[in-house]
C-alpha cells in the first residue's frame, strides 16, 4: 500500500505541473514547446530522461558480472554528445525542423524520409517498452502480485497516467516534469546510498576506499581484444550509441530543439553529456555496496543482476523510507523516458507519416493510439524477453537504429543523391545481414558481436546507398 500511495501522490504532482504548463496549448506547444525552453532545465531533465528505469535497476547489478567496465561506454557517450552538439544540432536549427527526419526528405528524398520515420517508430516503441517494463515488473513482483492485481492492469494504469499528463502540453510539459523527475531520481539514489553505507557502518571516506579496493571496481579492459568489455569496443560503441540514440532520435532531440537558440541547445547537450559518467558511477558504486551488504547479511546474490537493488529496496529490508525512495526513483526514471517517448512517437507519426502537423484532432487520436500500442509492446516484451534488460535495449538499437545511422551518414558526408526507391530495401536488408553475420561468427570463430553491431549495420546501409547512388553530385547545399 505504501508504494501505491507513493505513486498516486507522485502522479498528482505531475498532473499539477501539466495543468500549469499546458494552458492555451497548441500543436506548436506540443511539438516544439514554442521554442522557449530554458536550456538549463532541458539539460537537467534530459539526464533523467536518458537514464531511465533500466539504468536505475540494471546498472547496480552489473558490477557482479562485468565490474565497472560499463563506464568505458559512458566515456564514449561524452564524445558522442559533443559530436551531436556541433555536427547535427547546427543542421537541425538551420533548417528549423520540427522533426529531425525532415532532413532526410530535403537531402535524400521522400522514401528515405519515410523510411527514417518508420524505423524510428519501430525502434523507439521497442526501446521505450523495454525501459518502461522495468517499473511494471518491479511493482508487479514485489507489490501487486500479493494483491492479486494482474500484470495487464498494472501496465494499463501506468500508461494511462502518463497519457493524462502529456496529452495537452506535450514537450512543453515534459521539460518541466522531467526536471522534477530527475531531481526525485537523484535524491532517491543518494538517500539509498547513504542508507546502505549506514548499514555497513561506513563513512564516506571509508566507503570510497572500500569500493576502490573491491575487485568489482575494475573499469578498464585493454588486455583482451576478444572480450565484449574491451575498452576500444565499448568506447567507440558509446560514441555511436549516443550519435544514434540521441542525435538521430526524435525523442531525445525534441527537447533539445525547444531551446531558444542553437548556442543554448549546445550548452544544454554538452552539460548533460558530461553528467553521464558521474551519474552512472553512482549507480555502480551502489551495486558494490549492495553486494557487500548481501555478504554481510548472509544473503545470496540474485541470479539476475536486475534484481539486486529491488531485493533490498523494494522488500522492506532497509525500512519503509527506502521503499518509498526506491519507488520514487524508479517511477521518476521510468516515467521521464516513457512520457517523452510517447510524445515523440505522436510527433513523428503526425508530422512525418501523415504530414499533418496542424491537425490538432489527429494529434489527440494518435497520442491515444500510441498509448495503446505502447501497452501491447510492453506485454509482448514480458512474454519473450529472457536477457539482461540493458543489453536487450542495445541489441534492439543495433538492429533498428543502424539504418538511421547509414542514412544520415550518407546525407552528411557525401555529395551524392540516392536512388530513393531502393532505400527502404537496404534499410530492411542491413539488419538481416547483421543477424546472419553474428550467427556465423559465433559458429565459425566463437565470436559474439556486441554493441559494434550498430556501426556494422549502419555501414551496410551506407554501402547500399553508395553502390546505387546517382552519379551526378548534389547541386544544392545540405
Automatic annotation (TrEMBL):
Family to which the UniProt record says this protein belongs: Belongs to the sodium:solute symporter (SSF) (TC 2.A.21) family.
Cited Pfam families: SSF
Keyword match Ribosomal protein: no
Gene3D superfamilies assigned: Sodium/glucose cotransporter
Protein name: Transporter, SSS family
Keywords: Cell membrane, Ion transport, Membrane, Sodium, Sodium transport, Transmembrane, Transmembrane helix, Transport
Biological process according to GO: sodium ion transport
InterPro entries: Na/Glc_symporter_sf, Na/solute_symporter, Sodium:Solute_Symporter_SSF
Alphabetized GO MF terms: symporter activity
CDD domains reported in the protein's UniProt record: SLC5sbd_NIS-like
Main location: membrane
Transmembrane residue ranges: 38-58, 70-93, 147-166, 173-194, 231-248, 269-294, 321-345, 366-384, 390-413, 425-445, 451-468
Topological category with respect to the lipid bilayer: Multi-pass membrane protein
UniProt subcellular location: Cell membrane
Single GO cellular component term: plasma membrane
Amino acid at each position: 500500500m505504501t508504494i501505491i500511495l507513493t505513486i498516486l501522490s507522485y502522479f498528482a504532482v505531475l498532473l499539477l505541473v501539466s495543468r500549469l504548463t499546458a494552458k492555451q496549448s497548441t500543436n506548436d506547444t506540443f511539438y516544439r514547446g514554442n521554442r522557449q525552453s530554458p536550456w538549463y532545465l532541458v539539460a537537467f531533465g534530459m539526464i533523467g530522461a536518458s537514464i531511465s528505469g533500466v539504468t536505475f535497476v540494471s546498472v547496480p547489478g552489473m558490477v557482479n558480472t562485468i565490474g565497472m567496465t560499463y563506464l568505458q561506454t559512458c566515456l564514449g557517450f561524452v564524445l558522442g554528445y559533443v559530436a551531436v552538439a556541433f555536427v547535427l544540432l547546427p543542421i537541425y536549427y538551420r533548417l528549423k525542423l520540427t522533426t529531425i527526419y525532415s532532413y532526410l526528405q530535403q537531402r535524400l528524398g521522400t522514401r528515405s524520409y519515410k523510411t527514417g520515420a518508420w524505423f524510428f517508430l519501430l525502434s523507439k516503441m521497442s526501446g521505450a517498452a523495454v525501459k518502461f517494463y522495468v517499473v511494471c515488473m518491479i511493482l508487479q513482483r514485489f507489490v501487486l502480485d500479493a494483491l492479486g492485481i494482474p500484470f495487464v492492469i498494472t501496465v494499463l494504469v501506468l500508461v494511462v497516467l502518463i497519457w493524462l499528463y502529456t496529452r495537452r502540453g506535450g514537450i512543453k510539459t515534459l521539460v518541466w516534469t522531467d526536471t522534477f523527475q530527475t531531481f526525485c531520481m537523484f535524491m532517491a539514489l543518494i538517500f539509498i546510498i547513504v542508507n546502505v553505507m549506514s548499514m555497513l557502518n561506513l563513512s564516506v571516506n571509508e566507503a570510497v576506499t572500500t569500493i576502490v579496493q573491491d575487485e568489482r571496481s575494475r573499469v578498464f579492459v585493454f588486455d583482451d581484444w576478444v572480450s565484449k568489455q574491451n575498452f576500444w569496443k565499448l568506447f567507440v560503441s558509446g560514441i555511436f550509441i549516443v550519435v544514434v540514440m540521441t542525435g538521430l532520435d526524435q525523442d531525445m532531440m525534441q527537447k533539445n530543439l525547444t531551446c531558444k537558440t542553437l548556442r543554448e541547445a549546445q550548452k544544454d547537450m554538452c552539460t548533460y553529456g558530461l553528467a553521464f559518467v558521474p551519474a552512472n558511477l553512482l549507480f555502480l558504486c551502489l551495486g558494490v555496496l549492495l553486494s557487500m551488504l548481501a555478504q554481510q547479511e548472509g544473503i545470496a546474490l540474485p541470479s539476475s543482476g536486475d534484481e539486486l537493488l529491488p531485493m533490498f529496496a523494494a522488500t522492506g529490508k532497509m525500512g519503509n523510507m527506502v521503499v518509498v525512495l526506491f519507488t520514487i526513483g524508479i517511477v521518476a526514471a521510468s516515467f521521464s523516458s516513457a512520457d517523452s517517448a510517447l510524445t515523440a512517437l505522436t510527433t513523428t507519426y503526425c508530422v512525418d507519416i501523415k504530414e499533418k502537423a496542424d491537425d490538432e484532432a489527429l494529434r489527440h487520436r494518435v497520442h491515444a493510439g500510441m498509448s495503446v500500442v505502447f501497452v501491447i509492446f510492453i506485454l509482448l516484451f514480458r512474454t519473450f524477453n529472457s536477457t539482461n534488460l540493458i543489453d536487450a535495449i542495445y541489441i534492439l538499437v543495433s538492429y533498428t537504429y543502424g539504418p538511421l545511422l547509414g542514412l544520415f551518414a550518407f546525407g552528411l558526408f557525401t555529395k551524392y543523391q540516392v536512388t530513393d526507391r531502393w532505400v527502404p530495401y537496404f534499410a530492411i536488408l542491413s539488419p538481416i545481414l547483421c543477424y546472419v553475420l553474428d550467427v556465423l561468427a559465433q559458429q565459425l570463430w566463437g565470436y559474439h558481436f556486441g554493441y559494434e553491431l550498430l556501426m556494422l549495420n549502419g555501414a551496410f546501409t551506407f554501402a547500399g546507398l553508395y553502390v546505387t547512388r546517382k552519379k551526378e553530385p548534389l547541386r544544392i547545399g545540405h
